[in-house]
Specification:
- The protein has 19 helices and nine strands.
- It is of the alpha/beta class and 470 residues long.
- Strands 5-8-9-7-6 form a five-stranded mixed sheet.
- The radius of gyration is 28 Å and the shape is globular.
- It starts with 13 loop residues before the first helix and ends with a helix.
């Protein structure tokens, strides 16, 4: 308030909160605070805080169980997701809504406060999906048993309304989205990320922008920003748009997060059925099964993105893991900076870069966070092509002792890349990701240089053979 900022968002429990004793007392005693302007939303927020505490102050056992209540709410979301086959996870609005609702709901149940206008809630029940209501009721029973309370029917209806609201909200999601992509990776990682996003999701527009460009853009035209950069909280708030943070290499965790927000590409089977139906309108089909099979082959063979194929520089049968560019380090490194120096030193010894390339990588990590840490224990340190890079190169480092990168991220496996041309290393990055998927658990248990080289060479052959078979 002193900074001239205003809480504009209305409290969802407004009518209930205004009829509490807490509201009356806070309203009477606001003069204690040396603040002249205090709007209704801010008063209600204070009331909500007090009720959130006082709900449990009657019984210390209940206060101690608040963490369990939080976990039960999260577990409720997870279980309903499996049972109803609806992707509720990672929806911040749903989780916050349920946690905000449960505070006054417990307060009302303990103090036998009835909700006003009960008919409104029972009318709401008629518009609810019966399956959702029944499943929610089963989960709410767990909270009742934990806290030794009994919720009235209308309270359970309100719990179900949160899940119904999620479904209604996500009907809007069916529209394909316009998205900005803010990526700090090099050309190779950015190209792969763009390809993966376009291949997996139906996007009306995916526009690549820089960190500086974003502040001069009309963001109202877009539905959100996907970023590989760790943006500060105050910057996120100032942009006032949905922001989704991902790794430049799009991990399984990232995909789960994005699946809750974007429409997936339509399944080929649906397209084939539509084609068969269309053909049957104008021609006689002798064998529907064979026609479907034939169409499947045609569609599957043409699925790959042509643009992406053209972007990828073919590396042929070039072997990427060799004695001179693979190193197992037994001695403990105290900082991540030391590890960066070790990896760049290998590239330097192989005449791929000069040692200033190490500072290029460190600069990016210090300014944009550990986005190069792509999965648990693994990182792909790299910087864009510059005068410090002589040619395309790779260096692999596996540490006996983990080192912490910014953001408290532990790393043991590092693949250092250098790129002279923009299209360098695209194929190598794809290969690295497949190798990590196949043997990252074995890599972190490696004990010496010879063992490391054998594992990498063997896995590289397996990945190559799998690619040929596909």
């Amino acid at each position: 308030i002193r900074l001239g900022k205003d809480m504009k968002q209305e409290n969802i429990n407004k009518e209930f909160l205004k009829n509490t004793k807490e509201y009356i007392l806070i309203n009477q005693n606001l003069n204690i605070l040396d603040i002249k302007i205090f709007n209704e939303n801010e008063k209600l927020q204070l009331v909500d805080y007090f009720i959130g505490f006082s709900s449990y102050s009657y019984n210390t056992e209940i206060f101690e169980k608040w963490i369990e209540v939080n976990l039960i709410v999260k577990n409720m979301i997870s279980e309903l997701e499996k049972e109803l086959e609806i992707f509720f996870s990672n929806d911040r609005i749903l989780l916050e809504g349920l946690l905000n609702h449960i505070k006054p709901a417990i307060y009302r149940a303990k103090n036998e406060i009835k909700l006003e206008e009960i008919d409104v809630y029972f009318n709401e029940e008629n518009s609810l999906d019966n399956k959702i209501l029944k499943k929610v009721e089963e989960k709410v029973n767990k909270i009742e048993r934990l806290l030794d309370i009994k919720f009235k029917k209308e309270e359970i209806i309100l719990f179900a309304v949160h899940f119904q609201a999620f479904i209604e909200r996500n009907k809007i999601k069916k529209q394909n989205r316009k998205i900005l992509l803010m990526c700090v990776g090099g050309y190779g990682t950015t190209t792969i990320l763009i390809h993966k996003l376009k291949e997996r999701y139906d996007l009306e527009e995916l526009k690549l922008v820089s960190y500086l460009e974003i502040f001069d853009m009309n963001l109202l035209k877009y539905d959100g920003i996907i970023t590989t950069i760790d943006l500060k909280k105050e910057i996120q708030q100032s942009l006032n748009i949905n922001i989704i943070k991902v790794s430049p290499f799009l991990t399984e965790e990232d995909i789960k997060k994005l699946d809750g927000y974007f429409n997936g590409k339509r399944d080929n089977k649906i397209n084939i059925d539509e084609l068969v139906n269309l053909i049957s309108r104008y021609a006689k089909i002798k064998d529907v099964a064979k026609l479907t099979e034939g169409l499947e082959k045609i569609i599957n063979n043409s699925r790959n993105n042509k643009l992406f194929k053209e972007e990828i520089a073919e590396d042929g049968d070039e072997k990427i893991f060799k004695q001179e560019n693979v190193r197992y380090i037994k001695e403990k490194k105290n900082t991540w900076e030391e590890v960066i120096d070790e990896g760049v030193k290998i590239l330097f010894e192989n005449k791929k870069v000069n040692m200033k390339y190490s500072e290029d990588i460190k600069f990016l990590i210090k300014n944009f966070g550990s986005y190069m840490v792509i999965t648990k224990n693994a990182a792909i340190p790299h910087a864009e092509s510059s005068e410090n890079v002589y040619e395309k190169g790779i260096a692999t480092v596996v540490l006996k002792h983990r080192v912490k990168f910014p953001g408290n991220k532990n790393v043991k496996i590092l693949f250092f890349l250098s790129s002279k041309e923009k299209k360098d290393n695209l194929k190598i990055i794809e290969k690295i990701l497949l190798i990590l998927e196949k043997c990252s658990d074995k890599l972190i248990r490696i004990e010496d240089q010879e063992e490391l080289l054998k594992l990498l060479e063997k896995t590289e052959i397996e990945v190559k053979d799998n690619g040929k078979n596909k």
